[in-house]
From TrEMBL:
One of its GO terms (cellular component) is plasma membrane. It comes from Psychrobacillus insolitus. Pfam families: UbiA (PF01040). It is a multi-pass membrane protein. Interacts with CtaA. The chain crosses the membrane at residues 32-52, 64-85, 106-127, 133-151, 156-178, 184-205, 234-265, 285-306. This is Protoheme IX farnesyltransferase. NCBIfam families: cyoE_ctaB (TIGR01473). The keyword Signal does not apply. The gene is ctaB. It is an enzyme of class 2 (transferase). It is found in: Cell membrane; Membrane. It comes from the Bacteria.
Amino acid sequence: MSNGNSITATTKTEPEIVNTTLLKDFLSLIKIGIVNSNLITTFTGIWLAFQFTNRNFLKELDLLFLTLFGTALIIAGSAAMNNFIDRDIDPVMKSKRTRPTVTGRFTPSAVLITSFTLLVVGEILLFMASTSAGVWGLAGIISYVVLYSMWSKRRYVSNTIVGSISGAIPPLIGWAAVEPTLSLGALALFLIMFIWQPPHFYALAMKRTEEYRSAGIPMLPVVKGFERTKRSMLLWIIFLFPLPFLLMELGIGFIVLATALNIGWLILSIKGFRVKDDLKWATGMFVYSLNYMVILFVSMIIFSIFV
């Protein structure tokens, strides 16, 4: 571990018996919630690139569909690969015991075949959209599967930051499909998503600290404790404040809304140093972060129409 501490996984528990369907298991395998949330940022990247280059997306719907479907497939394939890699530790984490890789509904070989199929088809679609989109898609796959899942997750307390790279790439894929050379707007979307993720996932990690401890995963709350995690979350939220100003093209209304969202998150973060129930506060931070991301990216689309 990066901090010298030794964290080892505890004995596996028996898989939970759950009533489910093949479709539900498949959606669990590909982490459909993560796929959907990333498609919001991907679409925002596509939309803003069209707006900022004065192109009409209605005349290029094929590009839109290729990019969205391609991105969805590589995210789904990467998530399935993550489940394959983590099938040895998921059984000791209560929140993950119903995954099909744990219950045995999907065999390891079936998961690998599914993952590779989704990744290959997704990349073909992205390269059909543009070479740049395909390359950024490959970067996203490598950063999530290799850099995060295979390398940093079980070794370093900075694993969340490493994992934030892949989560910030979808808007770049969307933008690159329209404008391969990217621009300042694309960089802004990447930075917003990259900086948003640590406080988002640290809140989740606080809620699941004992699960991560049992699995031997050196998440920040496990290794450094809650107070250190709260300070890190506060710092990352502060880093968000200047980023809306990189999107001045969206107008003062967007700047005001984004700043208000940042202030609200900052206030909630500061309150964390005085609360008695850390887990309840972490839940509130997690919920706020989800709403923050959706509101911010949807507002980008809306404000771009009126400027």
